[in-house]
Write a structure and sequence with these properties.
Order of helices and strands: HHHHHHEEHHHEHHHHHEHHHH
Strand content: under 5%
Mean pLDDT: 77
Strand order of the largest sheet: 1-2-3-4
Number of strands: 4
Radius of gyration: 24 Å
Oligomer: single chain
Distance between the termini: 96 Å
Largest sheet: 4 strands, mixed
Low-confidence stretches: 21-48, 50-62, 64-80, 82-88
Structural class: mainly alpha
Length: 377
């Protein structure tokens, strides 16, 4: 009887152990669901896929010039050099492409990146797309108006017809290009010759307003963005130490919360949505035919549309009432919110995006012509 009793006792313990393991694993995956958005959503899926390619991309230490300890004296000197006084008359006009590509060369030199022709488009990030009918290559950096451009290019391809609701532009455009237009897939399927003779362009933006615009879009609560709601809750939980699930459901991270979280994560920050633009641009593997600073897109976009013979194609209008980028909402918010941060935080953010500031010699948020490129000299 004792033997039978021991065997039954062991079975009970084993069964109890299995139940405990099942409970622990269930809690683990539930916790992961709390802090990560639904992987089936297109934009988040792209972030995850791009993160899987992290080993193929430059480390953040390279992007910040190796300044992983954020040397403040050097940064102050760099910021001073960046904030050059340029007259409104010179600065309000779009920069020439000769100036733009000279800045690009300076940035690549600072990063110690060297371009070796010919163009190697298959090495681009997942945000570079090819449109076969109109023979156009476009890199869509997040928060540089990429959804607007993708909608225009998809219309030109004949894949979207009629008027488009600006509120649905993100979902419609990205859902289509994900499936059909990634240049990596096109080159792998049809060979490098498929992109021969294609016209290539990209859009870049002042890092400060890009950061603020992304925060407003994803975390501010100004717009309903369920894709990033879980990450917003996670930021509040981590930065404010709030753990009560009911309280967290009604809270959104402040810009200061997000900025400090981004600095805290540093090289371990895997939300590619806010990574430096130079990572998504296809440099140094390829050279673009045209680069548009978003701040001058109203004029320069017409030149791109003309170059690819899309005279009947239009871009969705800006959400801001002012056509002058110096008076748009993200600019005004940037001036206010960034000025409230500790200088240590802004210095670290500047270091994180240093290569992006160099791209167009972008002005600091304290400059009177912020956020325009400083191209008058």
């Amino acid at each position: 009887m004792v033997t039978v009793h021991n065997v039954q006792y062991k079975k009970i313990l084993s069964f109890g152990g299995l139940i405990c393991v099942f409970f622990i694993m269930t809690r683990y995956y539930l916790t992961q669901d709390e802090i990560m958005p639904n992987p089936r959503l297109n934009e988040v899926q792209l972030i995850q896929e791009t993160a899987q390619e992290a080993d193929k991309l430059p480390a953040l230490e390279e992007i910040s010039g190796g300044k992983t300890n954020f040397e403040k004296d050097n940064l102050n000197a760099e910021i001073k050099d960046l904030s050059l006084e340029v007259s409104n008359e010179l600065n309000s006009e779009p920069p020439s492409q000769a100036w733009v590509f000279n800045q690009l060369r300076k940035t690549m030199s600072w990063l110690d990146w060297k371009y070796s022709p010919p163009n190697d488009w298959e090495r681009c990030s997942l945000r570079t797309y090819y449109f076969h009918k109109i023979k156009t290559i476009f890199t869509g950096v997040p928060k540089t108006g990429c959804s607007t451009w993708l909608m225009a290019l998809l219309h030109a391809e004949g894949e979207m017809m009629g008027e488009t609701d600006p509120e649905r532009a993100d979902t419609l455009s990205h859902g289509t290009v994900f499936a059909h237009h990634r240049i990596k897939g096109m080159v792998e399927a049809h060979g490098k010759s498929v992109v021969n003779g294609a016209y290539s362009f990209a859009v870049v933006r002042n890092p400060w307003t890009r950061l603020v615009s992304g925060y407003r879009d994803l975390f501010y609560g100004e717009k309903k963005n369920e894709q990033y709601r879980a990450i917003g809750i996670h930021i509040v939980r981590e930065m404010r130490g709030i753990t009560d699930p009911e309280r967290l459901q009604d809270l959104h991270p402040t810009f200061a919360d997000y900025a400090k979280w981004l600095v805290k994560k540093g090289s371990h920050h895997h939300d590619r949505y806010f990574y430096p633009q130079v990572i998504d641009l296809c440099i140094p593997h390829a050279m673009y035919d045209f680069i548009i600073p978003l701040e001058h897109s109203e004029v320069l976009s017409k030149k791109v549309l003309s170059a690819i013979n899309l005279h009947g194609t239009y871009l969705l209008g800006s959400y801001d009432k002012s056509s002058d980028p110096r008076y748009q909402k993200s600019t005004l918010h940037a001036k206010e919110w960034l000025s409230l941060l500790d200088s240590d935080v802004t210095d670290r953010l500047y270091s994180f995006y240093k290569a992006d500031f160099m791209l167009m010699n972008y002005s600091n948020f304290t400059h009177p012509d912020f956020p325009l490129p400083l191209h008058g000299n």
